[in-house]
Amino acid sequence: MLASFVKMAYKQGFTTAEVTVSQFCLALICLLIINLLRKQSQTASKTDVLKLIASGTSMGLTSVLYYLCVKYLNASIAVVLLMQSVWIGVFIEALIHKKKPSFAKLTAVVFVLLGTFLATNLFSNEIVFDIKGFLFGFLSAVSFSMTLYSTNSVAQHLNPFKRSLFMLMGGGTIVLIFALLTQLLPTYLNINLIPEEFIAVKNFDTTILYTWGILLSIFGTILPPILLNKGFPLVGVGLGSIVSALELPVSVTFAFVFLKEQVLFSQWIGILIILAAVLLINWNLIKKK
Q1: CA distance 75 to 252
Q2: What are the pLDDT digits (tens) for 5-34?
Q3: What does pTM read for this prediction?
């Protein structure tokens, strides 16, 4: 749902910095309260905390890069680019474990790329090709792949609420740095450290905290890390990626219904091809189950 929510927030004049800060700020407060109310039977070591905060930075990067992508491209196209994490994850896994991907996985990568060409409607002259949007979308997929990998491997002995809190601290740090560079420093201190096209000189609009910020924090940074931290250690990255791939048709449907974005039949075919590729990547796991 996030891409559609962010697109609607942009239409009301909110900036990427305001969107991301409100999302992480409210989520951190909520998870901090949850952790304080829970009976603490586990103690996180300093090493665990540092690892979780470090791994959480990829969560913050994913939000920033994905929302920048949504700024330049349709929401239905942005989510397709985010789902490139399916094949990027295959190569990250191969690099870390120094194991060559199977023929089925390599075939699935080809299917994902083919599905992407169809789902983003690149063969049509109707699409507004913005290279910045595609670059941000691809980088968000790389970052999301790292988030999924760390969710399944870092400090698994801690409960999901505690893990999520520390990961959000890492993500919140990235979001705060982004807000400082793109809006807070240029507006309040007249300090410009990045290209002007990414800078929004305007006072921080706090109304987003009790409007879009609530929806974005619930569906973007409260529920996802808790559910990912709860589910992925139980089912593994393979089966988890199959389930999480349902994000693709759901997000495109939301963009079609709420934003009235045109989604062609060929784009739906591309989405189905990407989903089929996810199944192919994890075919051995499916057979075992």
Answers
A1: 7
A2: 898 999 999 999 999 999 999 989 988 898
A3: 0.83
